[in-house]
Design a protein that fits this description.
By secondary structure, the protein is of the alpha+beta class. The protein is 37% helix and 34% strand. It has six helices and five strands, in the order αββαααααβββ. It is globular.
């Protein structure tokens, strides 16, 4: 296997797994708005990617742990817990989440991974 092919194999499966895996992934920018989401997040909440990218954690979470805990997250670098997320149709789904600070190209982002605890 060539070095280029080997690098591709090492990068693509994790990227594809993150995009299509069984957990919702939300990336939040410094304005507390989603800047990236994976396919599972879109399916879980019933929004298109474009719709979700116009929203914030507060828009999809009735008890808004990300918004309420944002200062804690910024201070501690990590936030863990359970919450309800609200789908586009208004259905609440219980999730377990872990959010952590991440730097990409020198910019601060917060990555949240949410696992549904309800049958979806």
């Amino acid at each position: 296997m060539t070095a280029v092919a080997n690098e591709h194999v090492q990068r693509e499966p994790p990227r594809e797994a993150a995009e299509n895996g069984p957990a919702a992934i939300f990336v939040v920018g410094d304005d507390c708005r989603y800047v990236a989401v994976n396919d599972f997040a879109c399916r879980l909440l019933g929004y298109s990617r474009e719709e979700l990218l116009g929203l914030s954690p507060e828009d999809v979470s009735p008890d808004s742990p990300m918004a309420a805990g944002f200062k804690e997250l910024v201070g501690n670098g990590v936030l863990v817990g359970e919450s309800l997320v609200r789908t586009k149709t208004g259905r609440d789904i219980k999730v377990q989440y872990r959010a952590a600070e991440a730097k990409v190209a020198g910019l601060d982002f917060w990555v949240c991974v949410a696992l549904p605890l309800d049958v979806v």
